[in-house]
């Protein structure tokens, strides 16, 4: 009986993943908010592919200005807002206004909205000043940006980072827009970053990188 349940759950997960992956190929770009809500907030995601590993290489965030690019429904940004504490600021941007609205609701419910700044904008053109962020975080985001724009989005992250700031990118394999680590490292080098550290576990990696070329306005 237990075996039947186990196989049923695995089958349902496999089918769900196949549907999302085919959908991702047929309709490139951001997932719909309904799919995001389901895939990003379920307990398996939060426990295994969640904020803990996404922020592992970001260090102590207290008192820092930390920007997440591609916030979805705010699962990672909420953790960032708690970690920066009252002396820090958490910023978030998403190309979908509905994502920003849902994140705002989440942060407000958790009582941390006052230390956050949210914007609806593209990763390739963000409304923050040069060198205004200590950390930039991207989780399962870059693969949703058109291939020709990915290095531009990383260059934009470099623009807003302080010279000693850190970019941390996390990708996990069930995501239909997953970018393999070797390809990500190539993108990072092209955009003027050098890799600092890599964390890997089955189906997930996180890579931290620092600007090697100072941003020239
Ligand atoms: C798979 S979700 C991940 C959300 C969040 N980082 C998390 O891990 O819970 C990717 C998000 O990136 C956003 N996104 C996609 N392309 C973007 C772009 N060019 N600029 C900003 N956000 C983008 C999507 O709208 C979506 O909300």
From TrEMBL:
Gene3D superfamilies hit by this protein: Vaccinia Virus protein VP39
CDD domains the record matches: AdoMet_MTases
Domain Methyltransferase: from-to ranges: 66-165
One Pfam family in the UniProt entry: Methyltransf_25
InterPro entries xref list: Methyltransf_25, Methyltransf_Superfamily, SAM-dependent_MTases_sf
Highest rank taxon of the organism: Bacteria
Cited PANTHER family: METHYLTRANSFERASE
Protein known as: Methyltransferase domain-containing protein
């Amino acid at each position: 009986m237990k075996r039947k349940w186990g196989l049923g759950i695995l089958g349902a997960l496999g089918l769900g993943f196949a549907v999302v992956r085919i959908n991702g190929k047929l309709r490139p770009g951001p997932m719909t908010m309904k799919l995001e809500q389901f895939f990003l907030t379920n307990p398996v995601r939060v426990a295994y592919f969640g904020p803990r590993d996404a922020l592992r290489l970001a260090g102590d965030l207290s008192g820092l200005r930390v920007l997440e690019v591609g916030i979805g429904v705010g699962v990672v940004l909420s953790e960032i807002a708690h970690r920066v504490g009252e002396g820090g600021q958490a910023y978030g941007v998403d190309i979908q206004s509905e994502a920003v609205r849902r994140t705002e609701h989440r942060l407000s419910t958790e009582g941390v909205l006052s230390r956050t700044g949210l914007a609806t904008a593209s990763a390739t053109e963000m409304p923050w000043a040069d060198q205004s962020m200590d950390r930039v975080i991207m989780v399962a985001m870059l693969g949703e940006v058109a291939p020709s724009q990915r290095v531009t989005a990383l260059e934009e992250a470099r623009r807003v980072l302080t010279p000693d700031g850190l970019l941390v990118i996390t990708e996990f394999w069930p995501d239909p827009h997953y970018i393999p680590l070797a390809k990500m490292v190539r993108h990072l080098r092209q955009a003027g970053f050098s890799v600092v550290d890599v964390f890997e576990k089955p189906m997930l990696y996180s890579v931290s990188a620092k600007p090697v070329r100072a941003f020239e306005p």
